[in-house]
Amino acid sequence: MKKAYYIMAVFLLLLGIGLVILPDREHYDEASPRELLSDLRNPSRFISTDKVAEMIIDQDPTLLLVDVRDMYDFLDYSLPGAHGIPLEEILMYKWVDSLSYDRSKIVLFSNSDILADQAWILLKRENHNNIHIMKGGLNCWFETIIQPSPPAETAANEEIDLYQFRKGASIYFLGGAAPVEQETGSQTVIVKRKNKTKVVEGGC
């Protein structure tokens, strides 16, 4: 009888040691700290408001906009076609399929970079790919796209062209259509307004 107790005790001891030593299976796919630090230093994780505006206007099918603010802010105002996924829900199972689609370019945004940056870190830690942050968030969106400042009279042609695009994009997002003059010969490029989509709670 004592021998059986000794065998059972040794078995339980070995089992306990094994559980401590073996890694947690849920964390096999996590990015390493070295990989995460390298990605954090990569400026390509940011995408400009101008590029986001261009992709929305072009109705780029790969674009997936994710508003990580709380649902009240999302319903009050967000970018056209954006999905509302609050930061605290970003890793929930119900969003896994939407955020794991390889062909999508996921662009996270909030009022500034803070919440979007936190969401980016959480998703990258889970090895999600093609994730970007809209640089400056909605604050920068209003400054550059919705209410762009005109360039100085001595500004370079590139600055003038950028302002023309932003002015046309502003009218596009606020409603209406505006001609945007670009360096395309004598042709005038028209930025047209698309039909607004109704914001649905949850972003889906």
Quaternary organisation: single chain
User: How many helical elements?
Assistant: 8
What string, H for helix and E for strand, traces the elements in order? HHEHEHEHEHEHHEE
For the CA atoms, what is the radius of gyration?
A: 24 Å
Give the number of DSSP strands.
7
- Which stretches are poorly predicted, pLDDT < 50 over at least 5 residues? 3-28, 177-204
Mean pLDDT: 76
Helix content: 40-55%
Name the CATH homologous superfamily of the largest domain: Rhodanese-like domain
As laid out across the biggest beta sheet, the strand order is 1-5-4-2-3
CATH level-3 fold name of the largest domain: Oxidized Rhodanese, domain 1
Helices and strands: which structural class? alpha/beta
End-to-end distance: 63 Å
Q: Please identify, by name, the CATH architecture of the largest domain.
A: 3-Layer(aba) Sandwich
What is the CATH class designation of the largest domain?
Alpha Beta
Number of domains: 2
| Rough outline | globular
Largest sheet: 5 strands, parallel
